């Protein structure tokens, strides 16, 4: 063989060997990494410890997922020697499952897989309104509120006794019927259960106790028959039928006091030692035997109630559809006392402050400062109800009664219009000069006051809130004109003043209007300095007064207004008592003044913190709101003037005292 050829072959072989040595095979480098995912679907409990997710690979690997607020991992990547990552998650307190996809891939990106994460919703629950339920003797339908986060149709209902029938759950309530108990008291239960696909179980038991009443054979009588029974014990085995309209649970009505009302609006009031559980508007048969008729009174108004009623007196109870009668204020009659009605098309006459605007304490002695209810505890009879003046679109007015025990007592009054449902009541509130002849409305719950912020009855033409412009800064400064703080922009030049007033300043004096505290049940509720429920500088104080003195408003235009006008004022006087005053109108301050019909009112002396003579049943622990219909003669006028003028001193008041004005407004119907 030619030596050159031999050399070439030798060199070629040598080159091949060197290539193998110097450049190893690329097959390992180009080969895709291996991933092995043990479980591609991970189910997390609603709450639990972190979970390890297994990943096996022959190379370095990574994970990626969308950012999440409830889910995180301890790493985003690892060497092949790491065979898992850890998932940490927040508790799922919702009733929806949560999901997250985690992409696992090799570092070179050539191999990937997806792990689907599912977190279960919160643990299933079934919670009844009560674990125990007392049932009446006669058979009938019962219901109980059920709170649950599972489908109602998937809940298994299992009664443990045969006398429970026709059970179902619908719209958040468990319904069932019972047979009449004709032998002796008996017990049973209803078990509610649910199992989901993840072996989670929810179970609850409602224990039932059905009474046996000796009154089951009572004779049905009419309400007028009951009215004819004498005071004392009832010996006749009789019962009445009707709808429970007051269930004994309202904080705005005496505890354990109930009202049963029939279809014609007749009522019977009864009470018990311990609470009898009635559903609102339950139709019941109520035995009266062994109850006691007693009389109570509000001034000259005497009424009857039956005490000593127990659950055993309830022969039967079932759900009913009760239509609450709708009335205007003028349609209320004495026959409706204690019945439930809805007053339609009403508004708060002067929606300033809260549902209760009492003077309950003061910034005097230390013990009064520290106790927000100092005067309430000392004179509880003066604080039974706060009467909020309400009016309807027809111009009639009355009072809505609110107890300090009502949960909404310190809630700010709504400024709109709507309806108020409540018990028609007669009360004698001497401190507010409200007699028992006045028919008022007593709501049982906040939701019965269906008034929001939209007013479809009236618009405020002009208003003065009488608040000091800035208590901290007014100091010794003065001003001479007080323009409206509310109402329509067209009335911005209107003025409020008093005859002979020189100017306005912080402290009142003769012929100088100064500022006085107002009582606002929605203000300063966390203070312990005696200003609880009080607004510093929220009213005007003034002197001197006589039958030729007056507060007045001027430069008000009613051009273009053709609907009814009304006036609202909030006033009181120094503790010695105020005068009887009237509302008068004219078209200029120099013009002829005309008295507004039915406008005579008494300005009440404020409850005093030191003078015993100012702490009587005639002293008002706050201010009183008065509402007046204004004559149509004031409509469509370029200028109208209104004044509040004393005309005489009432019995028991010997001289003219300083008078205070906390708010004044004029409205017109829409």
From TrEMBL:
Coiled coil: none
CDD domains tied to this protein: BACON
Superkingdom: Bacteria
Residue span, DUF5689 domain: 233-427
InterPro entries, A to Z: BACON (IPR024361), DUF5689 (IPR043744), Ig-like_fold (IPR013783)
Protein's name in the database: BACON domain-containing protein
Species, as recorded: Bacteroides xylanisolvens
């Amino acid at each position: 063989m030619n030596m050159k050829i031999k050399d070439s072959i030798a060199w070629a072989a040598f080159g091949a060997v060197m290539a193998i040595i110097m450049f190893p095979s690329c097959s390992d480098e180009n080969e895709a990494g291996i991933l092995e995912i043990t479980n591609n679907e991970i189910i997390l409990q609603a709450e639990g410890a972190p979970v390890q997710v297994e990943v096996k690979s022959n190379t370095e690997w990574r994970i990626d997922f969308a950012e999440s607020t409830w889910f995180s991992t301890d790493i985003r990547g690892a060497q092949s020697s790491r065979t898992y990552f850890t998932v940490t998650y927040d508790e799922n307190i919702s009733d929806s499952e949560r999901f997250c996809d985690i992409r696992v891939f090799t570092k070179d990106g050539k191999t990937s897989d997806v792990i689907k994460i599912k977190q279960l919703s919160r643990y299933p629950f079934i919670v009844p309104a009560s674990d125990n339920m007392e049932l009446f003797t006669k058979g009938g339908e019962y219901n109980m509120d059920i709170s649950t986060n599972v489908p109602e149709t998937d809940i298994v209902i299992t009664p443990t006794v045969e006398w429970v029938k026709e059970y179902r759950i619908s719209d958040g309530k468990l319904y069932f019927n019972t047979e009449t108990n004709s032998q002796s008291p008996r017990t049973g239960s209803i078990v509610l259960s649910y199992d989901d696909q993840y072996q989670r179980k929810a179970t609850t038991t409602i224990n039932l106790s059905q009474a046996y009443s000796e009154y089951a054979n009572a004779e049905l009588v009419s309400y007028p028959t009951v009215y004819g029974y004498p005071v004392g014990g009832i010996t006749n085995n009789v019962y009445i039928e009707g709808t429970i309209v007051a269930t004994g649970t309202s904080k705005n009505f005496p505890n354990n006091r109930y009202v049963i009302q029939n279809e014609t609006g007749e009522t019977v009031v009864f009470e018990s030692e311990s609470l009898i559980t009635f559903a609102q508007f339950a139709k019941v048969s109520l035995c009266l035997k062994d109850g006691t008729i007693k009389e109570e009174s509000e001034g000259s108004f005497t009424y009857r109630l039956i005490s000593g009623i127990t659950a055993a007196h309830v022969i039967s109870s079932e759900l009913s559809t009760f239509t609450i009668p709708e009335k205007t204020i003028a349609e209320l009659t004495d026959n409706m006392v204690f019945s439930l009605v809805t007053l339609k098309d009403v508004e708060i006459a002067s929606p300033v402050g809260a549902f209760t605007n009492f003077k309950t304490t003061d910034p005097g002695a230390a013990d009064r400062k520290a106790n927000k209810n100092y005067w309430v505890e000392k004179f509880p009879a003066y604080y039974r109800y706060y009467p909020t003046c309400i009016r309807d679109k027809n111009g009639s007015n009355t009072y809505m009664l609110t107890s300090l025990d009502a949960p909404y007592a310190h809630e700010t009054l709504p400024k709109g219009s709507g309806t108020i449902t409540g018990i028609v009541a007669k009360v004698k509130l001497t401190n507010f000069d409200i007699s028992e002849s006045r028919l008022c409305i007593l709501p049982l719950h906040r939701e019965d006051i269906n008034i929001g912020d939209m007013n479809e009855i009236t618009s405020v033409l002009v208003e003065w809130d009488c608040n000091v412009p800035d208590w901290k800064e007014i100091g010794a400064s003065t001003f001479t004109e007080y323009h409206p703080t509310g109402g329509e922009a067209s009335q911005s030049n209107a003025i409020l003043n008093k005859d002979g007033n020189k100017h306005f300043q912080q402290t009142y004096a003769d012929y100088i209007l100064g500022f006085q505290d107002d009582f606002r049940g929605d203000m300063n509720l966390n203070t312990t300095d005696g200003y609880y429920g009080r607004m510093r500088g929220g009213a005007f104080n003034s002197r001197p007064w006589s039958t030729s003195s007056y507060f007045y408003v001027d430069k008000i235009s009613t051009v273009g207004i053709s609907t009814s006008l009304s006036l609202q004022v909030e006033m009181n006087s120094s503790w010695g008592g105020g005068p009887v005053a009237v509302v008068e109108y004219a078209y200029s301050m120099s013009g002829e003044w005309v008295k507004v019909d039915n406008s005579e009112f008494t300005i009440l002396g404020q409850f005093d913190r030191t003078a015993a003579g100012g702490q009587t049943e005639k002293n008002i622990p706050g201010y009183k709101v008065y509402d007046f219909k204004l004559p149509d003669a004031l409509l469509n006028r370029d200028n109208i003037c209104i004044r509040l003028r004393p005309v005489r001193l009432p019995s028991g008041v010997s001289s003219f005292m300083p008078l205070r004005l906390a708010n004044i407004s004029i409205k017109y119907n829409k």
